[in-house]
Design a protein that fits this description.
Elements (H helix, E strand, L loop, with lengths): L73 E5 L14 E5 L7 E7 L2 E5 L14 E2 L4 E3 L6 E3 L5 E3 L8 E7 L2 E7 H6 L12 E9 L3 H12 L4 E7 L9 H6 L12 H6 L2 E5 L2 E5 L4 E4 L4 E3 L2 E4 L3 E3 L14 E2 L4 H11 L4 E5 L3 H10 L4 E5 L7 H4 L1 H12 L4 E3 L4 E5 L10 E4 L4 E3 L2 E4 L3 E3 L18 E2 L12 E3 L4 E4 L9 E2 L4 H19 L12 E5 L3 E6 L6 E6 L5 E7 L2 E8 L4 H10 L6 H5 L10
Parallel strand pairs: 11-12, 11-17, 12-13, 17-29, 19-26, 20-21, 20-26, 21-22, 28-30
Antiparallel strand pairs: 1-10, 2-3, 3-4, 4-9, 5-6, 6-7, 7-8, 9-10, 14-15, 15-16, 18-27, 23-24, 24-25, 30-31, 32-33, 33-36, 34-35, 35-36
Helix pairs in contact: 2-9
GO molecular function: 2 iron, 2 sulfur cluster binding; metal ion binding; oxidoreductase activity, acting on NAD(P)H
Keywords: 2Fe-2S, FAD, Flavoprotein, Iron, Iron-sulfur, Metal-binding, Oxidoreductase
Family: Belongs to the FAD-dependent oxidoreductase family.
Length: 616
């Protein structure tokens, strides 16, 4: 199965590495935004799923011209409908309107005895943070995909949040509550990371190979943490870092729509970007060689080369026939859309997350058949009952499933010898196929290291690391994301290596590697900050998943009608993973409980225990 297979795993409890002592609220002044007004520092990549306009007032652009006329000076704003901060209970959060600012809102969160005022929407896709999870150690986690912020500062704690939340001074006066803020900050609703840098140590250089999620994490965190050396990103993708997760859900073919940061962002952060393919690494000489003939030296190297989609070693799938695709890049989407434009029958091979997402995205205008080997989609990873929920959701969109099926070969139609025309199953079924999309898994993209005598790759081609994502046996080299096998300490984990193909895991690993690099550069040793893996998918409804269920022995499924459910994946008494649809914030709450080691056990779950009632 494409994305989610092999060895997935998450982690366990830790205090936020950046859990700072609570600052006096009156001393906090939001940092100003570092980009010029004309620069789009944020993707127009927002939700492909429909959301009320009000939910996304400001997230698409940094300082869009619309807000240039708004006030940039600190002003007192009264909050509507609240007369005292003492009405909030511990860890309680409420969203309130800001008087005098059109659509202006703020989130009030009580932590210990202090109330903090923050931007109310997650900076990833704009989820309402009032529905998130506040923890006693000072974090607020988004209800949707696991982004986490520090309550006291608004700073990003965990991916996939690209920007911090704004934090405002809040106070009571004469029976009313006020914030001290700039109108533009209230409207923009988030704070770009301060990455502006001029290199002060030119004898140090981090080279990052890859241009995906892991790279985004490492680049941003290096500059946020004030790494003073040079940074070079080498990616063979022609575009700057995009939101890859959208490719299969919305088939977006225009990179500018899902680019996380504009070119100006890299320039302002003094990050050199090269489009090239790394073909070899000389770990002793500390240089990487590229296809175009460059030799680039480094003092620290971060490998973040992701995955290569697998193909099928069967007749018809070995390059003999055209219109057979895999999906990893914008260019793959472009090829699929162009081939699908005047075709009707699409066969997706592999009932993986990506297979099902792309089938779903194409089902509006095409006859889509999904072929899977298991008796239910994602059965091995999610269990048959949950797999059948996905199947039922997608069947409503007209998708046909051929399950417990094995592909035999593909053949051309009578009108062409070079294009695919039929996919043949081993039971003799012939499926008309104008187009085939393979969703049969990925392998780590480490071919450039295969014959390198300085490194021993794992059996699956991945790279073993320690908790800081530092490559075992090599000095000053890190591996992150889909190519990394790292020690897992979450529920059910004993420190054995796992490889997890999730967007958040790659980005959090990048942030961890950046912390290790910066602290090593300062001669400070640090404890690894752990995170719980979070994954999401769009399968007729939004699936959320946390934890790692590499070896679950049971699934406790609570169906709540209308396609809503919570599935607890257990290994013995331990709940090792949780999947949900339609019951936010159960996944986020479970992830936080797992992080701090307070997740309910199987017996408690079977007895009806409610994770939302446990204080984190
Ligand atoms: C279509 C799709 C949908 C997905 N949806 C979700 C989702 O909804 N939720 C979720 O959690 N995860 C999802 N994933 C998984 C997630 O995107 C990956 O786990 C994540 O992108 C891994 O990040 P990475 O940095 O390791 O690799 P990538 O993001 O794949 O980046 C690897 C980069 O390295 C470059 N590269 C490779 N080899 C070389 C080389 N030799 N030289 C130079 N550059 C090189 C590549 O061009 C690419 O830019 C999805 C993946 C895909 C493909
Ligand atoms: S919207 Fe908050 S993590 Fe995605």
């Amino acid at each position: 199965m494409l994305q989610f297979r092999g060895q997935l795993r998450p982690l366990q409890s830790s205090r936020c590495a950046s859990s700072k002592p609570l600052r006096c609220i009156s001393s906090y002044i939001p940092r100003s935004l570092p980009f010029p007004a004309s620069v789009s520092a944020f993707p127009s990549a927002f939700p492909f799923f429909s959301l009320p306009v009000r939910q996304f007032p400001l997230y698409h652009r940094s300082h869009s011209p619309k807000y240039l006329s708004t006030s940039t000076t600190m002003t007192e704003y009264k909050l509507k409908g609240i007369s005292s901060l003492s009405t909030l209970g511990s860890l309680e959060k409420i969203e309130v309107d800001v008087e005098g600012v059109e659509e202006g809102r703020v989130l009030l969160v009580k932590l210990d005895d202090k109330v903090h005022a923050l931007s109310p929407r997650c900076t990833h896709y704009g989820a309402p943070m009032k529905n998130g999870v506040v923890t006693g150690d000072g974090r607020i986690t988004c209800p949707w995909h696991g982004a986490c912020f520090n309550v006291s500062t608004g700073d990003v704690e965990d991916a996939p949040a690209p920007n911090a939340l704004n934090k405002y001074e809040v106070f009571e006066r004469d029976g009313a509550v006020y914030i001290n803020a700039k109108e533009e900050d209230i409207k923009f609703g988030q704070r770009n990371p301060v990455v502006k840098c001029s290199v002060s140590k030119s004898d140090e250089k981090v080279v990052v190979v890859g241009g995906g999620s892991g790279t985004l994490g490492v680049l941003q965190a290096l500059r946020e943490l004030k790494y003073p050396g040079q940074i070079t990103m080498i990616s063979k993708e022609p575009d700057l870092i995009i939101d890859r997760t959208k490719l299969s859900k919305a088939l977006i073919s225009d990179p500018s729509k899902i680019q996380w940061r504009p070119r100006e962002w890299y320039e302002s952060a003094a990050i050199e970007t090269l489009t090239d393919e790394v073909t070899a690494v000389d770990f002793k000489g500390r240089t990487v060689s590229t296809k175009s003939g460059k030799n680039i030296s480094y003092t620290k190297l971060v490998l973040a080369t992701g995955g290569i989609p697998r193909t099928l070693p069967l007749p018809g799938f070995k390059g003999e026939l055209s219109n057979i695709f895999t999906l990893r890049t914008i260019q793959d989407v472009q090829s699929i859309l162009s081939a699908a434009s005047n075709k009707k029958n699409i066969v997706v091979i592999g009932s993986s997350f990506i297979g099902m997402e792309v089938g779903n995205a194409l089902s509006k205008d095409h006859n889509v058949t999904i072929v899977g080997m298991e008796s239910a989609p994602m059965e091995r990873v999610m269990g048959a009952k949950v797999g059948r929920i996905f199947q039922s959701n997608l069947s409503k969109n007209g998708i046909t499933f051929k399950l417990s099926a094995s592909v035999s070969h593909a053949s051309p139609p009578s009108t062409s010898s070079s294009e695919v025309g039929t996919v043949h199953l081993k039971d003799g079924t012939a499926l008309p196929a104008d187009l085939v999309i393979l969703g049969v898994g990925v392998r780590p993209a480490t071919d450039y290291l295969t014959n390198n005598t300085s490194i021993t790759l794992e059996k699956d081609g991945s790279i073993a690391t320690d908790e800081h994502f530092s490559v075992r046996g090599l000095d000053s080299v890190f591996a992150i994301g889909d190519i990394a096998t790292y020690p897992y300490h979450g529920p059910g984990g004993d420190g054995s290596g796992v490889r997890i193909e999730h967007w958040n895991v790659a980005q959090n690993a990048g942030r961890a590697a950046a912390r290790a690099i910066v602290h090593a550069q300062r001669g400070v040793s640090i404890k690894a900050k752990r995170f719980i893996p979070v994954f999401w998918s769009a399968l007729g409804a939004q699936l959320r998943y946390c934890g790692y269920a590499g070896s679950f022995d049971d699934v406790v499924l609570r169906e709540q009608g209308e396609g809503k459910f919570v599935a607890f994946y257990t290994s013995g008494e331990t709940v090792v993973a949780v999947a949900t649809m339609g019951v936010d914030p159960v996944m986020s709450q479970s992830a936080e409980l797992m992080r701090v080691g307070k997740m309910l056990g199987k017996k408690e779950i079977i007895a009806g225990g409610d994770v939302l009632s446990v204080r984190v």
